[in-house]
Specification:
By secondary structure, the chain is mostly beta strands. The chain is about 10% helix and about 35% strand. It has a single domain, classed as Single Sheet (Rubrerythrin, domain 2). The protein has one helix and five strands; from the N terminus they run ββββαβ. The chain has a three-stranded antiparallel sheet, with no helix packed on it. A two-stranded antiparallel sheet has the order 4-5. It is globular and about 30 Å long. The structure holds zinc ion (ZN).
Length: about 60
């Protein structure tokens, strides 16, 4: 996961230089890895405001 980055605005984890979901800035400094399969049923996803399935960071610096 060394090369993975996380979006500063939507927390999506990606290996791209920009966020593929919202086009936002990405950071290498992030913590926690969350895989959301069904955002409707995930309490963490709801708390974080995640509405789409995907890979997310719990915290992005
Ligand atoms: Zn994003």
């Amino acid at each position: 996961m060394i090369n993975l980055r996380a979006c500063k605005s939507c927390n999506t984890v990606t290996d791209q230089p920009k966020c593929p979901r919202c086009g936002g800035e990405v950071s290498r400094e992030w913590q926690g890895y969350l895989v959301v399969i069904d955002p409707e049923k995930s309490e963490i996803a709801r708390k974080m405001g995640i509405r789409a399935a995907g890979r997310y960071a719990l915290r992005v610096k």
